[in-house]
Amino acid sequence: MCSYTAGTRMKMLLFQGNSMQLARSSFGLFLRNCSASKTALPVLTLFTKDPCPLCDEAKEALKPYKHRFILQEVNITLPENSAWYERYKFDIPVFHLNGQFLMMHRVNTSKLEKQLLKLEEQSAGG
């Protein structure tokens, strides 16, 4: 069900404005990786391009946490990601956690840890 919903939303994005496209695209990335399980891992989206040495450094910094999220990479230089390119072309790497902005430029491990713990506590309690 999640994949169908995300695919449908992604197709509809072609006909909408940039701000709505950004919100739905981010949500669509989240939906594409969701699961019916209550213990589904959060989705950490990395907005990147090739080459991106800072993105490579960021991925290295994320390795100790990789079992706690699903990493979704979005290449902002692809035509279908032009809205993300306009928004983040000077700021990559940029990270969203479950569709919400988290950090940019470098990995802030304390911020990441805090948000992951918050999501894990919510998942355990719900």
UniProtKB/TrEMBL annotation:
Q: Which Pfam families match?
A: Glrx-like
Q: Does the keyword Metal-binding apply?
A: no
Query: Key word rRNA-binding present in the record?
Result: no
Keyword entries, A-Z: Electron transport, Transport
Q: Which domain of life is it from?
A: Eukaryota
Q: Which InterPro entries is this protein grouped with?
A: Glutaredoxin-like (IPR008554), Glutaredoxin-like_YDR286C (IPR052565), Thioredoxin-like_sf (IPR036249)
Q: Which family does it belong to?
A: Belongs to the glutaredoxin family.
Q: What is this protein called?
A: Glutaredoxin-like protein
Q: Which gene encodes it?
A: LOC116540369
